[in-house]
Amino acid sequence: MEDQDGNPVFLPPNENRALLMAMGFCEKARAAIKRQHYDEALILLLEADEKFTTCNSGFLESVDNYALVNLDIVWCYLCLKVFIAAITNKKELNKRKASITFLERNAIARRAPTFRHLREKFSSQLR
After folding, report:
1. In the chain, which ranges are continuous DSSP H helix?
2. Which carries the bigger pLDDT value, residue 81 or residue 72?
3. Which of 55, 68, 69, 105 is such that its CA lies 20 to 30 A from the CA of 23?
4. pTM (2 decimals)?
5. Rounded distance, CA 89 to CA 4, Å?
């Protein structure tokens, strides 16, 4: 396992397995998003989110994968037109907001059309 800079990352075996499973779910979800199968993608992304949360939170804060999963989750909610209803839970909303803030802070998503569209459409809900 390597970080974005190619440096080796050493995780406990259970976290390493969870991370690999999460990344596999993400790849399948992205393929579903490309086919515009947002319901399938959302299920896969929520599974990935569950696997990611078993990893050390410090590790998750240092990589963009988890933040991008949250961005994709919000995108699927939007495409399924269930965004507001699905994220009424305060804890859930804060989790997605934290990921979007991470992406903004690291300038990862500013150029992404998905991110710009979310910001424009739901700026008041994401603050």
Report:
1. 13-34, 38-52, 57-62, 65-79, 83-86, 90-105, 113-122
2. 72
3. 105
4. 0.67
5. 32
Look at 90 and 21; give whichever has higher pLDDT: 21
What is the CATH number for 50? 1.25.40
- The 10s digit of each residue's pLDDT in 47-76 is 999 999 888 767 777 677 888 888 888 888
Q: Which residue range(s) make up the domain with 72?
A: 13-122
pLDDT of residue 108: 53
Which residues does 17 contact at the CB level (< 8 Å), separation at least 6? Answer: none
Answer whether residue 51 is part of any domain. yes
- Whether residue 7 is contained in a domain is answered as no
Q: In which region does residue 36 sit, left (phi positive, over 0), alpha (psi from -120 to 50) or beta (all else)?
A: left
In a domain, 68, yes or no: yes
Chain-centroid distance of CA 26 in Å reads 9
